[in-house]
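Feature request, filed as a ticket because there's no other form

It would be nice if the structure record came with a short human-readable summary line next to the tokens. Right now we just get the raw output. Example of a typical job, pasted below so the devs can see what we mean:
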Amino acid sequence: MNKLQQLVKESWTEVTENVTWPKFSELQASSTLVLVASLIFALVVGTIDFLFKSGLELFYQSF
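Raw output as currently delivered:
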């Protein structure tokens, strides 16, 4: 139990005193970048999926 208490105390000290937390504006910018990149990726994958689906439907209808 003593080791667990020591771990928690050291972890709290590390988080509160030694970690450099980003500013809120930096977090907003990073979140916006991730959102935009995710949307672009989803559109690219959706387009590729649509093209493959359409191509395979045309291929199967030819038989």
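Something like this underneath would help us a lot:
Residues 1 and 40 are 50 Å apart (CA to CA).
The radius of gyration is 25 Å.
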